[in-house]
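[Q] Does anyone have a clean structure-token version of this?
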Amino acid sequence: MDSASSPLILGAASLGLVHTLIGPDHYLPFILVSRARGWGMARTLRLTVVCGAGHVGASALLGLFGVAAGLAIGRIDAVETLRGGVAAWLLFGSGLAYAAWGLRQALRDRPHEHWHEHADGQVHRHRHVHRGEHAHPHTAGAGAAAQSGRWGSWALFTLFVVGPCELLVPLLMVPAARGAWLDAGLTALAFALATVGTMVSAVAAGRLGLNRLLRAGSGGRRSSRLLERYGHVLTGLVLAACGAAMWAGA
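[A] Here you go.
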């Protein structure tokens, strides 16, 4: 690595940090989906790291492949723009679908009374909703929840791999075009570490802040129940808004 590469690597790290902070689509999906799904902090941050690595790695591979194949930067940018449009529509569409599913769940969660039979034969009648306060084990429901959680993880991973890092490709073109592959690798690594590190920090801070906000608002029991009941709807609408913002900025 020569002295001329140091500013490039430092600039890559700075751009990775800034572009992540100003792009809420890099952290809001993890904060909201993990809260709505009831994921712990450790699982949420592991998924954030994996998705962030896939997000940066896909663009880095595309950029290096383009240089090796002799493609002009305009062609690579066109591919990145196409990926950005696809990612925006995926986020928008999946957000609306999730909001619709959440609304269906919320409507099913209206308090009601019915007879309930336990495995030991005991039968009783009570008033409840289908989650939260109702603590009876339902094996099929637990399995569905686990499958839904896996689907949420894969959906986020797919979304972030498809989503481009438009800033990374031009950064890689400079050292790669002159055959300085070590410098290109260090530039990509600096950008990746800054991006993923900022994603993890923002997600952790956002989850902690959201948890504290919800605990502070739990004094208003009715408001807390409404937020819990319609949390999936709100999550889906915010994700759709992120997708629309991505599309508008493309």
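[Q] Thanks! Anything notable?
[A] Residues 132-147 have pLDDT under 50 and may be disordered.
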